[in-house]
User: Which sequence fits this backbone?
């Protein structure tokens, strides 16, 4: 299972990368705005800065919502760095653009996916990744994890190569359940990754080992 971090914060990306388990980064316009990155040139430069910090895929989202605009913007993003994956929303023109990018060998991440039908369309269009937002479904009392399970079944039925990127992951149990179901990738905050480290018995056991070592020396 690949681990992506869902942030545009360079310090957090560096921290996750330093742990040695990071496979990529996802961003979105809200995450860029949260870091105060505004203006086309600054945004493009920030994507390159992220690519230079990590070895894996970096999702960069288009702002355009019409076919020609998505193509123009996506090609510009893809030109920035070979690690860039063009993130395209699940709308009609987005699906058409994903098909265009797929035919041209430009990798895509189909975002804002909330149903298995949408995920099926994204895979048929040739998306590299599909991003079902599990946390946002949980927020409206709908089981986000069962969507991951449904998409897994559908993709396996037909051998679709599109990778299931569980997005809007909020906590460690989302990560663990996604791994159990067989999501190919998860993207979440740094806390969902570092939280996996924690267990009180590890802390107690380590304290005991160190205390015993001290006694014997
Ligand atoms: C996915 O790529 C999105 O950036 C993200 O996971 C959205 O998560 P949120 O629901 O926590 O904003």
Assistant:
């Amino acid at each position: 299972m690949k681990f992506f971090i869902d942030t545009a914060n360079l310090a957090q990306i560096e921290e996750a990368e330093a742990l040695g388990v990071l496979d990529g980064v996802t961003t979105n316009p809200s995450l860029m705005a949260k870091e105060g990155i505004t203006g086309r040139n600054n945004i493009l430069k920030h994507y390159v800065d992220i690519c230079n910090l990590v070895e894996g895929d970096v999702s960069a989202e288009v702002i355009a919502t019409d076919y020609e605009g998505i193509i123009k913007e996506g090609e510009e993003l893809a030109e920035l760095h070979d690690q860039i994956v063009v993130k395209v929303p699940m709308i009609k023109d987005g699906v058409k653009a994903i098909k265009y990018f797929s035919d041209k060998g430009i990798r895509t991440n189909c975002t804002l996916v909330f149903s298995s039908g949408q995920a099926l369309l994204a895979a048929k269009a040739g998306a590299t990744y599909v991003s079902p937002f599990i946390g946002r479904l949980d927020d409206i009392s709908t089981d986000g994890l069962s969507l991951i399970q449904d998409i897994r079944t559908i993709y396996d039925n037909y051998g679709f190569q599109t990778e299931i990127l569980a997005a809007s992951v909020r906590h460690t149990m989302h990560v663990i359940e996604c791994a159990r179901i067989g999501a190919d990738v998860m993207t979440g905050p740094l806390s969902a990754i570092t939280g996996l480290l924690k267990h009180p018995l590890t802390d107690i056991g380590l304290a005991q080992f160190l205390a015993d070592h001290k006694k014997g020396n």
Notes: The chain has eleven helices and eight strands.
